[in-house]
Amino acid sequence: VIGGGGAGLAAAVSAAENGATAILIEKTAALGGNTVRAGGPYNAVDPQRQEGVPAASDLAMESVIALTEKEAVSPEHQAWMDQLKSDLDAYNSGDTTKLFDSIALHILQTYDGGDYAGQLPMIEKLVEESLPTSEWMAANGVEWKEEISTVPGGLWPRAHTPINAAGGDFIKASEAKANELGVEIILECKGNELITDETGKVVGVKAEMSDGTPVTLNAKKAVIIATGGFGANKEMRQEYDPSLGANLGTTNSPAITGDGIIMAEDVNANLVGMEYIQSLPLGDPETGALNGWMGAIGVEYYYQINKEGVRFMAEDGRRDTMTASLLQQTDAMSYVITDTNRESEGTEVNLWGDNIEELVKNGTIYRADTIEELAELIGVDAETLKKTHEDFNSYVAGGSDPEFGRKLFGDPIETAPFYASPRMPTVHHTMGGIEINLKGQALDKDGNAIPGLYAAGEVTGGIHGKNRLGGNALVDIHVFGREAGKNAALDN
Question: Could you tell me the domains of the chain?
Answer without folding.
Answer: 1-276+431-492 (3.50.50.60), 279-427 (3.90.700.10)
